[in-house]
Amino acid sequence: MAFAANVKKLLFLTAVIPLLYVSFLLLLLNGTIQRHALYAHKINTAWWQDLNEPEQWGFLKNQVQAFNLTTPDGEVLYAWHILPVSLYSKNQKALLLEPSGLPKDASNSRASRLLRDDPESRLVISFHGNAGSLSQGWRTDTYRALAAAAADKVHVLTVDYRGFGYSTGSPTEAGLIIDGTTLVNWALEVANIPPERIVIVGQSLGTAVATAVAEHFVVQCHIEFAGIALIAAFSDLSTLILTYAAGGVVPFLSPLRMFPRAQQFLSSKIKDTWRTRDRLANVVRHSRKLDLIMIHAKNDYDIPWSHSNTLFYAAANATSEKGMSSKQIDGAKQHIDLGAQGWTNVWSAADNQYGLKRIQQTILRRGGHNRIMTYDSVSKAVFELFKL
Q1: pLDDT digit string (tens) for 169-195?
Q2: Which one, of 47, 33, 249, lies nearest residue 133 by Cα?
Q3: How confident is the model at residue 102 (pLDDT cuts 50, 70, 90)?
């Protein structure tokens, strides 16, 4: 009897699980549900914590200046400006006298003045991945790793996209690009930091935002930054979603591999495509000189490291007017064996008029999808991009 009951349960699950999966896929055809699944902006593991008290995450009192930004389309974004530790220590007495929380005028706060008035200051603009807020998971440790390149010079600026954390609105591809350009414009026009002292960094979803923002400034404004670092990047959402598994466990479309037409149909219904490969190639083509670093872990189970390969070849190919095959690029690139750490590929293309376009890809054997942001390889990338 027990055996028969177990067989019935197994048959029931065999029928129900595919039905639930198909129902899930049909729900994803709805644009609102699809965007909630993609951006996961309502999944917040720190909902009970006040983002206006960064000391909860180990920061020093008033080391983090929280402030709001208003986008051209009327959304209000919540942002953090994190001071480098050594600079904070030198100015601790004055900083402790500053009121905590959101200032009425962030542009005139002591933190902003320390950034703006120091000709040696450097600024990392960091775009985080999906889900939660700017304080979630490894993100606060990420900011420390980014600033570690120079504890007296490197400031970090980050933002919650619309619909994330305390920011208003709902996320879309176009909206997140507006959010990114708004943050960079604040750095350029309010903080008055020249672009050659700014490095753009993105992780996961943030790599798509960072690339789109860089494309906007280089193509439309002819502004180029000190460098761009893309950590755990993906080539485009349509390709990623075919193999993507949330948390490395829950698959999206990979169970449909035996049904390519169904995969193609569902891929064609994606609202926000995030074509980073095309945008990155456009950045390379329109830049007079460029320093680009991509870092990915082999054990990234959210976004396979093969996506970084795709981006590396697309970026290298964009340095040539005639175009090159992957075989040609492999024959000319510099390959550096890092032993147990992994390896690095470097592509350099000289322009006699403007300078060098340098594209570097580092594949680490370990690091996962999120923790990699705290690794020394990321700190070193920032150090190299700033040429400190």
Answers
A1: 999 999 999 999 999 999 999 999 999
A2: 47
A3: confident
Q: What three-state secondary structure class fits 32?
A: helix
Half-sphere exposure of 326 (CA within 13 A, CB side): 6
C-beta atoms surrounding 80 within 10 Å: 23
Q: Hey, what are 359's tokens? A: 């594209």
The pLDDT value recorded for residue 261 is: 73
Integer Rg of the chain from CA: 22
Characterise 45 by phi-psi region: left (phi > 0), alpha (psi -120 to 50), beta (else): alpha
What is the rounded average pLDDT of the residues 22-48? 67
What was the pLDDT predicted at 387? 87
Q: In whole angstroms, how far apart are CA 64 and each of 54, 57, 94, 99?
A: 7, 11, 14, 12
Q: What is the DSSP string of 48-98?
A: TS-TT-GGGGTPPTTTEEEEEEE-TTS-EEEEEEEPPHHHHHHTHHHHHTS
Q: Residue 102 and residue 39: Cα distance in Å, rounded?
A: 26
Which residue is listed with tokens 């906007």? 216
Query: Please, which residues have CB within 8 angstroms of residue 26's CB and are 6 or more apart in sequence?
Result: none
Q: Which of 13-17, 344-348, 374-378 is least confident?
A: 13-17
Q: What is the dihedral of CA 295, 142, 379, 125, to 10 degrees?
A: 90
From CA 26, how far away is CA 29, in angstroms rounded?
Answer: 5
* Token duo for residue 318: 């964009």
